[in-house]
């Protein structure tokens, strides 16, 4: 059997000297290394039935760095491929792992995927093709990744078109194959989590010290263990390729994807809760506006095992929502009835100029007086907090402060607006995460800083669901902006 290692690297700054911390420090991140990495488990599970291949799941956020590298040293002779998931914060660590594998045994093949690679494919391959043999862009790549590994096991590699979503360095240039749609992968093989290393013990220990006490205090529930659950992925704003300017989520070829209806969603939730996970982290980037129909039909078709379980014994769900989705009481009620107790919500506060600069509104501001629209959005946020309070939902509020072109006056305006909102949210805001803008690769802000002022936002795939939108940044800023 050949081993194929799927590794979720730790944040680079935690393991590599000189690598800067560009995100919240892991020790300050309440959800850090509390539960299995769904992306890595998905890819490992997809390989479980490939003949001659043993998938090896390693989460570098709980397995110590020297142990991880040592595993590659010890098993080098039997390793077919090392595959790493790369976010911007983890990309350098991912490269170090792949370079290590190549140094130990050059015949080991290396594969990389996830948001950082998707956003910066050209640059990653141009600069690092010495240690990256294959990359995959976007989310819908599980099938092609499995096909690639199966072919590598047979000692062959076909042309890129055989692996939709792949990107390779060939003849001094990047060669890519467009993504194709595929269903959300749900056949998870949980036994892989502890097959090579005991991940569960540290996950549970972290969960018990970070998440469980907080939820006990705020909701009065005792929780055992957490697990991310993907009933859908996407955000309503991706539909028109109109993400907030700081958003670095790479949706790839499909702006939204979901499991096949309410029964499939319930099956997944039942599967998780039967495995004693009682804190389910719904990974969808936005729930009420993007997946409203699915959530409503889940509520209408709730299975007997769920309706027959007392509310206090049901798993607690957490997820993401836009404030304007939550301000609708119908949405809040559906979420609450489905067992969602906590929501991560980005607040849309600020001056009209700031809202526009961050591309926050769902519909264009031009339709009405911008100041009036900003006030309406503010009201939406106040209503969202009121509705959440009425339905017993706790909010983890996020706010990005700063945007390109912001000056002292706008900063003061935004802080004042934010403070008003926080006052309104007393008793319903469980935690507040205020981040200073740090444009990450893949975001509009990053592209604005690194590419010409006007550009075409390229679709990753060629599917019907991707769109091409030409977006122009204001070349003249209002007087209060220095740019
Ligand atoms: C849930 C989540 C978390 C959870 C992870 C839970 C878990 N253990 O699984 C927690 C809260 C722990 C977390 C932590 C972090 N996260 Co996070 N997270 C998400 C979120 C909302 C969903 C990810 C997810 O599970 N999706 C479902 C799974 C199945 O998909 P996936 O992981 O994307 O993997 C698929 C593809 O990407 C691809 N793929 C992924 N890896 C690989 C590797 C190979 C070889 C191949 C072929 C394919 C491939 O195939 C997979 C199957 O479809 C995303 C937003 C988003 N929509 O992506 C942010 C997001 C990925 N996180 C982000 C960040 C910044 C972080 C942190 C760095 C934050 C911090 N301060 O430390 C840490 C990193 C932790 C680490 N080292 O792993 C950013 C990344 C931005 C960027 N450009 O890099 C995102 C996009 C959110 C955002 N915009 O801020 N996160
Ligand atoms: S920041 Fe949130 S609301 Fe804005 S585009 Fe990204 S996921 Fe959607």
UniProtKB/TrEMBL annotation:
InterPro entries: BchE-like, Cobalamin-bd, Elp3/MiaA/NifB-like_rSAM, rSAM, rSAM_sf
Methyltransferase in keyword set: no
Annotated Low complexity bias: 463-483
Keywords, alphabetical: Iron, Iron-sulfur, Metal-binding, S-adenosyl-L-methionine
Disordered: annotated segments: 457-483
Domain B12-binding: 17-159
Cofactor(s) for this UniProt protein: [4Fe-4S] cluster
Top-rank taxon, per record: Bacteria
Residue span, Radical SAM core domain: 221-475
Pfam families: B12-binding
SUPFAM superfamilies, alphabetized: Radical SAM enzymes
Name assigned to this protein: Uncharacterized protein
Lineage: Bacteria, Bacillati, Actinomycetota, Actinomycetes, Kitasatosporales
